[in-house]
Write a structure and sequence with these properties.
This protein is an alpha/beta fold and 339 residues long. It has 2 domains: 142 residues, ATPase, nucleotide binding domain (Nucleotidyltransferase, domain 5, 2-Layer Sandwich); 169 residues, Nucleotidyltransferase, domain 5 (2-Layer Sandwich). The protein is built from 9 helices and 10 strands. The strands form 2 sheets. A 5-stranded mixed beta sheet has the order 3-2-1-4-5, with helices on both faces. A 5-stranded mixed beta sheet has the order 8-7-6-9-10, sandwiched between helices. Helix 1 packs parallel to helix 2 and helix 4 packs parallel to helix 6. The longest helix is centred in the last third of the chain and has 32 residues. The chain binds 5'-O-[(R)-(carboxyoxy)(hydroxy)phosphoryl]adenosine. The site of 5'-O-[(R)-(carboxyoxy)(hydroxy)phosphoryl]adenosine (KG4) has 19 residues, from helix 4 and helix 5.
């Protein structure tokens, strides 16, 4: 008998719902919240209010686009954490109400694991691009920069992570000081495409193991702007392409150096990337280059599955459903949790 899972994602500023039948995605609806742009970052209180308004139409649309009736659902998977507490509460409470009314189980999902398992979403029956275990996954988003050894659908080990800022945060904070708006990552990426990545040199961290650090780079970027602006008031405007290209190439070098080291030490040549920063074209090019140079088999997600989406939640829910790994109705969200 087929297994049909409704996934619900509401951890930050995207309200999303998706239906997956067995491993094939039937729908994936995402409502993003433009309200935060004016504030230069996500405002938690506004995010939870927008989730409240969006959740019913988004879930209804996901069920409609999937061409199913809600009574065909086997279970409801929802993001339990990490994320913003008010945002998580909306998705969790909605999942409780719908699961209770349909008399079906609930499955709690770790958002970070879901980003990793996004690589297993099939868009049709013939889709067979899924990674083989074990593989390495570089998870890079606004809140995380981790290297994960993925041993199975449920066994994942974080072998390195940022000790301060995340890669996406470095992009966003540097973009903010250049007055480029929020979120900064996509803007930096666009401007970097027309800049010289060797125009400026910013500091790289020297820390042992597979951990990352991006706060030194942020400070070095800030000091360069401060010093050059004293001599040339329109320094940023004149050099924004080169500044973005140099910043982007430094972030990518930092990420790839540790990932290469991990792949070599652990003798793993299947490598994936996940999370919002995996939309970065420079990082995607670096993966392609590593595939050619080091024989890596690489897995780069489609743009729709890089940022927060419910298809990855439903996919993770599907594997937990097969293990009958359900959660009780009195489950509460976690704002902080690791893999
Ligand atoms: O995974 P995500 O959607 O949300 C969480 O952080 O959970 O990631 C958002 C992050 C932001 O920091 C954003 O600036 C960054 O991903 N990002 C990018 C690009 N697109 C999104 N960073 C660099 N280049 C991009 N093209």
């Amino acid at each position: 008998m087929s297994v049909t899972i409704l996934g619900i994602e509401s951890s930050c500023d995207d309200t999303s719902a998706s239906v997956i039948r067995d491993e094939v995605m039937l729908s994936n609806v995402i409502a993003s919240q433009a309200v935060h742009e004016a504030y230069g970052g996500v405002v938690p209180e506004l995010a939870s209010r927008a989730h409240q308004q969006n959740i019913i139409p988004v879930v209804a649309e996901a069920i409609k686009r999937a061409g199913i009736d809600k009574t065909e659902l086997s279970a409801i998977a929802f993001t339990r954490g990490p994320g913003l507490m008010g945002s998580l509460l909306v998705g969790t409470s909605f999942a409780k109400g719908l699961a209770t009314s349909l008399g079906i189980p609930m499955i709690d999902i770790n958002h970070l694991q879901a980003h990793v398992l996004a690589h297993f979403i099939k868009e049709n029956e013939e889709d067979n691009h899924q990674p083989n275990f074990p593989f390495l996954c570089l998870l890079v988003s606004g809140g995380n920069s981790q290297i994960i050894v993925v041993k199975s659908y449920k066994e994942m080990e974080v072998i390195g992570q940022t000790i301060d800022d995340a890669a996406g945060e470095a992009f966003d904070k540097c973009a903010k000081v250049m007055g480029l708006g929020y979120p900064g990552g996509p803007v930096v990426n666009r401007l970097a495409n027309e800049g010289n990545p060797k125009a400026f040199t910013f500091s790289k961290p020297h820390i042992p193991g597979y951990d990352y650090s991006f706060s030194g780079l942020k400070t070095s970027f800030l000091y360069t702007l401060r010093d050059r602006l004293k001599e040339e008031p329109d320094f940023i405007e004149k050099n924004k392409h080169d500044l973005c290209a140099s910043l982007q190439s430094t972030v990518i070098d930092i990420l790839m150096d540790k990932l290469r080291k991990a792949a070599k030490d652990l003798h793993i040549s299947e490598v994936a990337v996940a999370g919002g920063v995996s939309a970065n074209s420079g990082l995607r090019d670096a993966f392609q280059e590593h595939a050619r140079k080091y024989g890596w088999k690489i897995h780069i997600p489609k743009f729709a599955f890089t940022t927060d989406n419910a298809a990855m939640v439903a996919m993770t829910g599907y594997y937990k459903y097969l293990d009958k790994d359900f959660c009780p109705m009195d489950v509460a969200p976690f704002s902080r949790v690791t893999i």
